[in-house]
User: What shape does this take?
Amino acid sequence: MNEPASDTTLNNKILHDAALEGDFETLKHVIDRGARVDSRDQDGRTALMLASFNGYTNIIRLLLDEGADIHLKDNYGRTSLMFAASGLFPEAVELLLESGADPDVIDKDEHFTALMFAASEGHLPVVKILVRYKADPNLRDVDGDDALTFARNNGHTDVVTYLQTVSK
Assistant: This one.
């Protein structure tokens, strides 16, 4: 028997909060109670995106094991990989890539990629992982900027040096 809509809505809210906070036990409990792993919040974000934002690999792994769709995008066209790449979460980024995340997806607004997010923040370990998984360092956003430009503009010289060796 299905739970009433209000229970489902509440479970989905708890799922999102638990994913964002890294609360594995609560997340597992609400999934067992029927929360939909791909339910979305008001911005179109899923629990996988929220867990990725904070690099919670144990939560990411659980959600993927429960069938979370790694290819979903939020209202702005951002993916779980983009959220993970914006932080210094190399393990989360690698897990998502190993699970089939596409490193060259672009968002809807500015046409940013996961590599651009990582380069902009100066996260060299994440940049290296993305490149190893065939992220294209030559993709450009709507302004014509690539990951190298983002790194350079934000003073991340180690990322600039690395990207100069892999860019065409």
In short: The chain has two domains: 1-75, 103-168. Residues 31 and 37 are 7 Å apart (CA to CA). The domain at 1-75 is CATH 1.25.40.20 (Serine Threonine Protein Phosphatase 5, Tetratricopeptide repeat). The two ends are 57 Å apart (CA to CA).
